[in-house]
Amino acid sequence: MSKLEVVKALSGAQKAVALAVIVSATFLISVSVGVNAVVFPTALESYGASNTVIGLVMAIEFVSVFAISFGLGRILRVTSLRTGLLLSALFRLPSLILLAYFTDMPMWLLLVFVHGIGNFLNQILLQTWINSLPFERSRGLSMALFGTSISLGLACGPVLLQLLDSVSDSIADLVPLIDQVVLNYLNLARPEAVQTSTQINLIASAMITTLAALPTLLGGFLIPKFRMTKSSNIPQAVRQAPAIMFAVAVSGVSILGVQSFITLYGLSNNLTLEQASLLLTAFMLGSILLEVPTAWVSDFFDRRYVMMVLVFLSLICAAYLPIAIYTPHLAWGLLFLWGGVIGGLYSVCLAMTAERFSGENLISANAAFSIMDNIGGMIGILLIGVCMDLFGSDGLPYVIMLAGVVYFSFALTRYQVR
Fold it and tell me: Which of 395, 150, 190 is nearest to 288 (CA)?
């Protein structure tokens, strides 16, 4: 079977249910990732890890996207899309539980890497599933709902940690049982350095990531029956749609760059900690609230031009940031708009990927999409850090502006978008 054939026969109601299943599962996974973004570094800091080590551990999860993307073809040659989605939960759940039984960095690197494989396997397969749904005039809107579920989940993760106090006693009742099972079967005891609150948070994250498999189980009959019959060719996918893939990389530079450095940027420009932290809040809110209408607009226009306009708007937002930063309300408004622009760019590129590729090539394209997104993010973070050291806080907008200029230099003079 070389095509995602089952989805061709879905009714309108079934497509809506499939979309709801995908969005729900993606949201739950993202909530877990948002929880981990707080729990991982704080736990490592309590173990005495340096900032460099913490950064390495946090980055290793993104490295796993390369491992899973280049191994995806082999996985889907021996298992189905449906089984792959369920298999991803087996990577996520045990790795989170076992983190509470180690304080040494090599094991943390290994377990976080394994957890990342489960996360990205799930994300790429869900992305492939939603891309295979035969939407006619609402593909941009559907992709925006998928992208918004990621942003909303990431934003809800830290908030959920604040609400865990009301159920922490119930989760704490599971701790002795889990300790006993791990001791009996793996001969591991929880180190004294691991606080009970850390273990409770890890268990909560594991429970949420397990719940993410429930929508997949309930909607399993809607998952296309599909297996790879040939190896995935990620470089070929990039060569076939370079304008799309490099636009995704620009999106990654902006998203991870702003998320990682915008608070420091605000503090460097004499904002208070509260004012600076609201810059990131405004960016995330923009991504959550504006991504859907921005991508929906692309359903009525040529997406090639919408994509180019969004890259240009991101460049403009970066250019005006050094001016707006001295007026907090103006800066918050700019970051709100910027978040919507970048969120919309991600969704529009995803919709274009679904239109450009089909069948087995769609698997390679989705893997390439995730790789380019992460490559852009990692290169962006590295360059922004270096430029902020060399040129001051304005190194942040400089790098994002440079990414936009380089993209236009490529897309407008060397490549005809198609």
Answer: 150
Calculate ∠ Cα 104-211-108, nearest 5°.
10
Distance separating alpha carbons of residues 352 and 345, to the nearest angstrom: 11
Instruction: Judge if 252 and 388 occupy the same domain.
Output: yes
Angstrom distance (rounded) from CA 74 to CA 373: 22
pLDDT digits (tens, 9 = 90+) for 63-100: 777 777 777 767 777 777 777 888 888 888 889 999 98
Structural domain contains residue 418: no
Lowest mean pLDDT among 71-80, 140-149, 206-215: 71-80
Give the Cα separation of 188 and 240 in Å (integer): 49
Domain of 81, in residue numbers: 6-222
Q: Report in angstroms the alpha-carbon separations of 110 from 40, 64, 96, 338.
A: 13, 10, 11, 35
Residue 265 pLDDT > 50, yes or no?
yes
149 has pLDDT over 60:
yes
Its pTM stands at 0.76
Let me know if 214 is exposed, middle or buried by CB neighbors in 10 A (0-12, 13-18, 19+): middle
Asked if residue 250 and residue 201 are part of one domain, the reply reads no
Query: Domain containing 255 — which CATH number?
Result: 1.20.1250.20
Q: Are residues 327 and 214 in the same domain?
A: no
Alpha carbon distance 76, 374 (integer Å): 22
State the DSSP code for 1. Answer: -
pLDDT for 7 = 44
Residues 325 and 272 both lie in one domain = yes
Tokens of 157: 């993760």
Whether 158 has a pLDDT exceeding 90, the answer reads no
19 assigned to some structural domain:
yes
Residues 91 and 218 in one domain: yes
Q: How many C-beta atoms surround the C-beta of residue 5 within 10 A?
A: 13
Average pLDDT over the chain, rounded to whole?
Answer: 80
Closest alpha carbon to 326 in 263, 393, 269, 262 = 269
Looking at the chain, the whole-number percentage of residues with pLDDT higher than 90 is: 7
Domain-terminating residue out of 222, 252, 271:
222
332: its two tokens: 């918050």
Question: Are 155 and 303 contained in the same domain?
Answer: no
Same-domain check for residues 279 and 149:
no
- Answer whether residue 115 shows pLDDT above 80: yes
